[in-house]
Amino acid sequence: MSDSPSLLTASRRFPPSRAFVESASINATRLAEMRVAADDDYVGFWAKLAREQLAWKTEFITALDDSNAPNFRWFADGTLNASFNCLDLHLATRGDKLAIVFESEPGARRTYTYRQLHREVCKLANAIKSLGVGCGDRVVIYLPHTPEAIIAMQACARIGAIHSVVFAGFSATSLKDRIEDAGATLLITADGSVRNGSSIELKRAADDALQAGSGSIKNVIVLRNTERPVDMKAGRDLWWHELLEGQPEHCEPEWVSAEHPLFLLYTSGSTGKPKGIQHSTGGYLLNATVTCQWVFDLRDDDVFWCTADVGWITGHTYVCYGPLANGATVMIYEGAPMVPDAGRFWKICQDYGVTIFYTAPTAIRALMRAGDAFPKSYDLSKLRLLGSVGEPINPEAWMWYHEVIGKGRLPIVDTWWQTETGAIMMSPIPGAIDTKPGSCTHPLPGIFVEIVDEAGTPVTENSTGGYLVIRKPWPSMARTIWGDNPRYIKTYWEQFGPDRYVVGDSVHRDEDGYYWILGRVDDVLNVSGHRLGTMEVESALGSHAAVAESAVVGRPHEIKGEAIVAFVVLRGDRPTGEQATALSKQLRDHVGMQIGAIAKPDEIRFTDSLPKTRSGKIMRRLLRSIAKGETVTQDVSTLENPNIVEQLAYPA
Ligand code: PRX
């Protein structure tokens, strides 16, 4: 196995290999030039890229409109179409090149060339139009991680409909809330999906969601994916394959303003209600496109595999939009990493000649734990670049990735970004920057970050931590929260003044100026790279009849990064023994039903009351140390009920 983490320090550096540097599209000299250009005139820097990298129907004149800051607008008077940029643009030069290579968990394989993908997208776009869906209408996509999910997103983009993908692991209740908030008129789902050998009944969940409300939905398109029987409601539900029959294979793209919303993606925040992050067409596509070139050094002969599900922002930017806009071949795997064993990912890399592999630290840790024999029994020689995203990667996992998967020679790009930033903000440029295990290194050219203290004063000394903020607008920034612009402004633009985007992460910069993301500073958990609000889990628990009150905190977890611990006060007596075990299971299942399996608490502790200050504020810091099993050293004298600490720490 790899080096002991104790040997690793912030000063340990890994320069890219000479071979990589020689063939890389950006070397240190080029990067320095890009930085100078961006520092000199960041608006001009982005405008030049937008003209070079995107195909416009009408060129924009104004690059940045800040008249309504912080609701910035980029390239607003230009028109384009995202699907045209991802598909049509490649037909003449790459029509027969593979756009998508797909494998399902049970082993079904399918491929699409750019020409085939274009045809399917056009047919679906025409089908959707025939249902009355037009430009600006919202379409919710609740599909497994299949090529059809990409086809559905691209078809919406083609006609200017705004897609909102809901991760297939979310429950019927979550689906309903998102459909309602978006006011969607069309839902695209599937009969089901197979994961970890068991079937996920998506259509059933969709039916439950629609029965419970969501009156705005007029039609449901159902993809046949597992052949499991489903109920089809006459007049509302339509089979994908039947609807596409006879649809024309050409669909004129809808030319929209660069500011036209491309999609909404709901993400957790510090309240119980997820927010619909709204992304634009032109600015989003620009950062998605260029970051593929800068960070992944994407070339025409690459097979690019980002393992993220299309239900998350990583799947949007680095499965659907970025690689296709670059004409790349994208690998898609619909299934779990451990099926039939921990060699599945490596077998896929071998079988399809994957050259760029991008995954989450939680997967790396789980695969590391399974042992080196799995990766060693597959031919990984085609790999040339590795990436990590979603949470801080611990140096031990980084070293294993580097040595066992990268054979000590592949660069690792640790990419820091968020749903709201749309694309990667900080990352090594692989041919230009030495990496350090656990650091996302530096902001990309055109991205200006700052570290500030509690009062918003910039921290200028290296080696000092603080809150991460972004100083200048960038093209792929979120435009607003759907239907709630005041919340957008309050969440992201108030804490440190109107010209500093509040990231919500704490960060540290070392003596060499390298950035190290430490984690969230708000009430947001990061469980297996997925974002969850503590309040969201608390409100799910609170909707159970037996629960009076709860407080949810995170606890470090070896594989998942963070585990969820819930402290629960019941309406009746505090249960113990078997009764507590049974109720715990009931509550976990209830949260699973309300949000989705990813939100089920790992541990539930019943208590007579929560530790509150006299002003009624729950002392979360105290709960976090109790959940970690630390001895309580905090001053508890300000607590209304100091005696409760004993019960919380040593539950019966
Ligand atoms: O805390 C940071 C963490 O994930 C948060 C964003 O979550 P989400 O919007 O779901 O997007 C995840 C995929 C882009 C961030 O605020 N995070 C993401 N990438 C990293 C990270 N933390 C440390 N290192 C990273 N590379």
Provide a descriptive summary of the structure in words.
The chain is 32% helix and 22% strand. With 652 residues, the protein is an alpha/beta fold. It has 3 domains: 13-81 and 273-522, Rossmann fold (3-Layer(aba) Sandwich); 118-253, Rossmann fold; 528-649, 2-Layer Sandwich (GMP Synthetase, Chain A, domain 3). The strands form 8 sheets. The protein has an 8-stranded mixed sheet with strand order 12-11-8-6-7-14-15-23, with helices on both faces. The protein has a 7-stranded mixed sheet with strand order 5-4-17-16-18-19-20, with helices on both faces. Strand 1 (64-65) and strand 2 (73-74) form a beta hairpin. Helix 13 (361-369) packs across helix 15. The longest helix has 18 residues, at 577-594. 54% of the residues are buried. The structure holds adenosine-5'-monophosphate-propyl ester. Adenosine-5'-monophosphate-propyl ester binds next to helix 11, strand 20, strand 24 and strand 25.
Shape: globular
In total, how many beta strands?
Answer: 30
CATH class of the largest domain: Alpha Beta
Measured between the Cα atoms of the first and last residue, the distance is 40 Å
CATH arch. level architecture of the largest domain:
3-Layer(aba) Sandwich
CATH domain topology of the largest domain: Rossmann fold
Mean pLDDT: 94
Bound molecules: adenosine-5'-monophosphate-propyl ester
Name the CATH homologous superfamily of the largest domain: ANL, N-terminal domain
Q: Compute the number of structural domains.
A: 3
Strand content: 15-25%
Number of helices: 20
Structural class: alpha/beta
